[in-house]
Design goal:
- The strands form two sheets. This protein has a three-stranded antiparallel beta sheet with strand order 1-2-3. It has a three-stranded antiparallel beta sheet with strand order 4-5-6.
- The protein is about 50% helix and about 5% strand.
- Strand 1 and strand 2 form a beta hairpin.
- It is mainly alpha-helical.
- The protein binds s-citryldethia Coenzyme A (SDX).
- S-citryldethia Coenzyme A (SDX) binds next to helix 17.
- Keywords: Acyltransferase, Transferase, Tricarboxylic acid cycle.
Length: about 425
């Protein structure tokens, strides 16, 4: 963090003393005003519900330029990573700061591959759920339960523990997501296969059965690997901030990641991919493209509480670069599967076109985000709608861990403890119940 020559001076109209606040510059993006001493100097807090103007930390991992619609992982544009790398190379980049050379990639891949099995006891957790449990309810339980098995990697202040916990989580998430899916359809779990790629192994655990050979489709394998890359990290979004705040108490990494899973589930966040696909289904059922106008009218009516799911973003006020790549992946996968006329994909593109020409969306800078097309690709791959957010959690685990480890390694980090503007009752005395 570099101090800037300029500083901010706070003056008070009631004649209170001015307060000088240092300004710091990053390598990219907005400067920050350091308010850490503000309360001590003024007895006042800042007020920023939703953190619209607040930087919660310094980070070197991911940078988003919301106005230009750019996304960099450790400086590499997402477009280049999605076309030239695979997910495990991207994991290495996010965790260690650089893309691996071939020997490092082979070593990292071997490490992850050898941790893909979960303790046999894990399957007994699933039996407690109803078969129709939402996969994210199961995942929230299973990921937290991992901390019951790996006592040798739960001391978050021990770098060795952090390293092995990171590998275990990245390796085991696909196994757990596939188990959650198999449980809901009453099929036997498939063990991971060390001869398959990360994405190929996930497809195998999801769709193979013990009854016959399952052939991994290279097209689906590549598409899924790219979906994982696009979802891997995204700066200080709600679930990443949850993981950081949870981890700041010193809890173990499995518990902190479980908190991230729980937060991602919300429809305003990672749950939007499931909600976006269900929205497309509803418009389809109501009559398809000719019903888009009616739907858009509902969205623009504030009382309807209807949102165009998969649209809008706190940071992107331009097209989410991941949505562009996801749309391309849609075209590729649907084309390869002979589904280029998939009605839902056509409906999504028609909906996007109409929305991007409508003043309501243009004036609010609402564009498709990562969740708008991801459901269509996942559905084409054969992943059921309720599992979409679990796939998002699988991919985002590496980002959560990288951000958590960066926080723990930051000498400035402390337990997160926001304050408040209190507007409740002043002190009053308890009356005996007879006179209340
Ligand atoms: C993710 O933060 C991240 O990086 C998240 C993520 C990641 O990778 O981690 O990118 C993943 O969560 C993507 C977002 C997925 N969510 C959705 O697609 C749900 C639909 N989108 C909205 O809920 C909303 O756009 C948010 C939550 C994404 C962003 O909300 P903000 O930043 O709080 O913006 P806002 O709600 O204040 O919206 C500004 C205006 C409002 O209208 P006015 O009050 O100004 O009249 O735009 C409207 C909103 O009502 N608006 C929408 C809308 N999104 C915003 N209106 C209709 N449909 C929408 N989708």
């Amino acid at each position: 963090m570099k101090a800037s020559e300029t500083k901010a001076t706070l003056s008070f109209s009631n004649g209170g003393d001015n307060v000088d606040l240092p300004i710091y510059k990053g390598t990219l993006g907005p400067d920050v005003i350091d308010i850490r001493k503000l309360y001590a100097q003024t007895g006042m807090f800042t007020y920023d519900p939703g953190f619209m103007s607040t930087a919660s930390c310094q980070s070197t991992i991911t940078y988003i330029d919301g106005d230009k619609g750019e996304l960099l992982y450790r400086g590499y544009p997402i477009e280049q990573l999605a076309t030239n790398c695979d997910f495990l190379e991207t994991c290495h980049l996010l965790l260690y700061g650089d893309l691996p050379d071939q020997p490092k990639k082979d070593e990292f891949t071997k490490l992850v591959t050898n941790h893909t099995m979960v303790n046999e006891q894990m399957q007994f957790f699933l039996r407690g759920f109803r078969r129709d449990a939402h996969p994210m309810a199961i995942m929230t339980g299973l990921v937290g339960a991992l901390s019951a098995f790996y006592h040798d990697s739960t001391d978050i202040n021990n770098p060795k523990h952090r390293e092995i916990a990171a590998i275990r989580l990245i390796a085991k998430m696909p196994t757990l997501v596939a188990m959650a899916y198999k449980y809901t359809i009453g099929q036997p779990y498939m063990y991971p296969r060390n001869d398959l790629s990360y994405a190929g192994n996930f497809l195998h655990m999801m769709f193979a059965t013990p009854c016959e050979e399952y052939k991994v489709s290279p097209v689906l394998e590549r598409a899924l690997d790219r979906i994982f890359i696009l979802h891997a990290d995204h700066e200080q979004n709600a679930s990443t901030s949850t993981v950081r705040l949870c981890g700041s108490s010193g809890t173990n990494p499995f518990a902190a990641i479980a908190a991230g899973v729980a937060c991602l589930w919300g429809p305003a966040h990672g749950g939007a991919n499931e909600a976006a696909l269900n929205m497309l289904y509803d418009i389809q059922k109501a009559g398809g493209v000719e019903k888009i106008g009616e739907f858009i009218k509902q969205v623009k009516d504030k009382n309807s509480n209807v949102k165009l799911m998969g649209f809008g973003h706190r940071v992107y006020k331009n097209y989410d670069p991941r949505a562009k790549l996801m749309q391309e992946t849609c075209k590729e996968v649907l084309g390869e599967l002979g589904l280029e006329n998939d009605p839902l994909f056509k409906l999504a593109m028609a909906l996007e076109k109409i929305a991007l020409e409508d003043e309501y969306f243009v004036s609010r800078k609402l564009y498709p985000n990562v969740d708008f097309y991801s459901g269509i690709v996942q559905r084409a791959i054969g992943i059921p709608v309720p599992l979409f957010t679990a796939v998002f959690a699988l991919a985002r685990t590496v980002g959560w861990i990288a951000q958590l480890n960066e926080m723990i390694g930051d000498p400035e980090y402390k337990i997160g403890r926001p304050r408040q503007l209190f507007e409740g009752s002043v002190q009053r005395d308890v009356k005996p119940i007879a006179s209340r």
